[in-house]
Specification:
With 281 residues, this protein is α/β, with parallel strands linked by helices. It contains 10 helices and 10 strands. The protein is globular. The relative contact order is 0.15.
Length: 281
């Protein structure tokens, strides 16, 4: 079973260098897939209200405790406030609803899913998240799809720096400037769509060459690239064998030139959802 190392967030929390995405993992099959991931060494589970699977994630956490002996405190359960719940009071209520759906007494990492700038309530939402953390219902707080300017506003207005910013990040969109900002401010980068799904990324010649040089798969080469950039990727897979493969990226190291070669595939954002414009409900 692969061992996934951790880094320390700016609030002192130990945070895995790789996690399990759970988008579209629903029902009994979804629970079984998440339990399989936990069995394979994953300790970071990424969910959201809009994934409609918080209850499945919570059930998997309980089953992992009963069947695998993986204690609740060993897992970091992430969920996210949807756009429709922005604002102080609505964010507080949304957290209570997520806790009820999860069947847990705390959320380990709570994120604002999208900034929704035209609504203009992400600062209020952030203030609610600070209160939730202070009240013990949430351990770590962060954001998703926030720009440097938005992060700066949160920090300047509240004095509280997000622990994590989860953003689209893959070799076609390596987010160099934003990652540098995160490093400067002690924010952990987390990568959604780390393999640039529905693209030809894993067929790129440079990725294949690097994978062969290390006797690993193209997927493993790309996930290792994320790790060496200092970002936590959260690949989603329902297949236990693929979950093991995805997590097994800590036994080899890319050279600086190989990291640069993969970063050289940059072509820009692939997914509709520019945080300056996108509104998420």
């Amino acid at each position: 079973m692969p061992t996934i190392p951790t880094v320390t967030l700016n609030d002192g929390t130990d945070f895995p260098e790789l996690g399990l995405g759970t988008y579209n993992l629903r029902g009994d099959d979804g629970i079984a897939s998440i339990v399989a991931g936990i069995s394979s060494g994953y300790r970071l589970l990424d969910s959201a209200v809009n994934y409609q699977n918080e209850s499945e994630v919570g059930a998997a956490v309980r089953r992992a405790g009963d069947e695998l002996g993986v204690g609740r405190d060993e897992l970091i359960v992430t969920t996210k406030i949807p756009g429709r719940d922005h604002g102080y009071d609505r964010a507080m209520a949304s957290a209570e609803a997520s806790l009820a759906a999860l069947g847990l007494d705390r959320i380990d990492l709570y994120l604002i899913h999208w900034p929704n700038p035209s609504v203009g309530k992400y600062l209020e939402t952030w203030q609610a998240m600070i209160a939730l953390r202070e009240g013990g219902l949430v351990r770590s707080i962060g954001v998703s799809n926030f720009t440097e300017a938005m992060l700066t506003e949160l920090i300047d207005e509240t004095g509280v720096t997000p622990a994590v910013n989860q953003v689209e990040l893959h070799p076609y969109f390596p987010q160099g400037a934003l990652r540098a900002f995160h490093r400067e401010h002690g924010i952990r980068t987390e990568s959604w769509s780390p393999l640039a799904r529905r693209s030809e990324l894993l067929s790129e010649g440079v990725v294949g060459d690097i994978a062969r040089a290390h006797d690993v798969t193209p997927t493993q080469a790309v996930l290792r690239w994320h790790v060496q950039l200092g970002s936590t990727p959260i690949p989603k897979s329902a297949d236990p064998a693929r979950q093991v493969e995805n997590a097994d990226v800590f036994g080899f190291e890319l050279s600086d030139d190989e990291v640069a070669a993969i970063s050289g595939l940059e072509r820009g954002r692939l997914w509709d959802g520019d945080p300056n414009h996108h509104e998420e409900m």
